[in-house]
Amino acid sequence: MKQDLLTFKDWSGEQLNELLALAIKIKSKPADYDTLLKGKSVVALFEKPSLRTRVSFDIGIHKLGGHMVYLDSQAGKLAGREDAKDTAANLACWADAIIARVYSHETLQQFSQASKVPVINALCDKYHPCQAAADYLTLRETYGSLNNLTLAYVGDGNNVTHSLLIVGAILGVNVISITPEGYEVDQALFDVACQLAKKSGATITQSHDISASKGANVLYTDTWISMGDDTPLAKIKQVFDPYKVDENLLQLSGAKYVMHCQPAHRDLEISGALIDSDKSLLMQQAENRMHAQNAILASLMA
């Protein structure tokens, strides 16, 4: 029976830890996995453009011996062209898996129902599971273990935050979501994370107060301006400036490292000096997108 990855909320801690362990093996001994997807093709349909997601999947699939077919946001635009379920059913006739970076989680659900091959969520409005897998892989490498770690997410509550909360809750990582009023995470998904945390023993909290970051090991932020958002920058800054991840917040929190899923706006949501410092895990996160995704592909396809 085929397995999809739309969100990690139905995965167990054992499954996620096995996934991270596999990613570490693939990263350390790539030659052992260079024929894993031999003879297999993966379609990557992107309604939303991307740098890291597209390149990391394309090169990663090649390293596993497979072939990726990229459908860009124009050639592969779904709205008004044909039903999502028909698109997925057709792609599944030829491909061995479908990667989709879409606007709506509903599109992925339709893909999942119509496709006979695995569907992987490369980003939607609710979740970004591949990013979260790379992030927790990075933390596992950096600290050796995820036990007793605390990650403070600071900024706009969004799809990245949702996946960080869910995966952290399953893995036993304490996650604090700190956002301005009106920019909180989806409450239903926050509640899901809280329920998942009961099993792992993690603490999941949310706050509007920047001082809630005290005691965190890592500060994590994301862009304040989502792709396609036409809100004036002056208005965005007025709301989010107090939530900027900079040297002052690093000192206040006591955190050792900073993270950002990128693209990053230097000296807006995060200090440019921090990005370039030894406190930054940004490039390790970016590299680990490929290794985490290769582990996902291996788990779902091999």
User: Taking Cα atoms only, what radius of gyration do you get, to the nearest Å?
Assistant: 19 Å
Helix coverage percent = 40-55%
Average pLDDT taken over every residue? 95
Low-confidence stretches: none
DSSP strand count: 9
Specify the structural class: alpha/beta
Instruction: Give the topology string: H per helix, E per strand.
Output: HEHEHEHEHEHEHEEHHEHH
Largest sheet at a glance?
Answer: 5 strands, parallel
- If helices are DSSP runs of H or I spanning 4 or more residues, what is the number of helices? 11
What report would you give on this structure?
The protein has helices at 13-28, 52-63, 84-94, 105-114, 129-143, 159-171, 187-200, 233-240, 247-253, 272-275, 282-301, and strands spanning 41-46, 67-71, 97-101, 119-123, 150-154, 174-178, 204-207, 218-221, 257-260. The protein has 302 residues and is of the alpha/beta class. A 5-stranded parallel β-sheet has the order 7-6-5-8-9. Strands 2-1-3-4 form a 4-stranded parallel β-sheet, sandwiched between helices. Helix 7 (187-200) links the parallel strand 6 (174-178) and strand 7. Helix 1 (13-28) packs across helix 5 (129-143), helix 5 packs across helix 6 and helix 5 (129-143) crosses helix 11. It is globular and about 55 Å long. The model has no long low-confidence stretch (mean pLDDT 95). Residues 148-299 form the Aspartate/ornithine carbamoyltransferase Asp/Orn-binding domain. Keywords: Transferase. Its EC number is 2.1.3.3. Belongs to the aspartate/ornithine carbamoyltransferase superfamily.
